[in-house]
Amino acid sequence: MNETIKLRFAIVFSVVLVGAIIFGAVYWGSVSFGNKISYKEVSLEQIVAKEEIQKIESQNDSGNPSCGVMDSGFKNYATIIPPKGQKVEIISVGKSENVGIDIVYDIVDVSDNNALPEGIAIEFINLFGSPVGFVQNRSK
Prior knowledge:
- About 30% of the residues lie in helices and about 35% in strands.
- By secondary structure, it is α+β, with helices and mostly antiparallel strands.
- It folds into two domains: about 1-30; about 35-135, no CATH class.
- The strands form two sheets. The protein has a four-stranded antiparallel beta sheet. A three-stranded mixed beta sheet has the order 4-5-7, with no helix packed on it.
């Protein structure tokens, strides 16, 4: 009887210790990366069907870009489709000052005003499912 209690205590202690180590590693990893979040640019057509892109482009009369986020397992994809005659440049992807993740981007005019917009998609990991915000750089 006494050996059974010791064995159960050892098992519970081991499970709690392993859980604490995993939690500590995840927390340390998220803090050590600072405010920057690793991302890579991917083809917009990989994420959104070409017909859907054309539909979004044709319906965008506001002059503002169309932004969206999609989840796929641990990977997240953010898309930005600007109005005609413009393209998007990603400035940074990082932790927000408040909560979540901010994608800071700039809209640049292209030489041909009737040219199809040059949208962009980025792939990143949003480990804790934080909200994602799109921030247009207006410091020009």
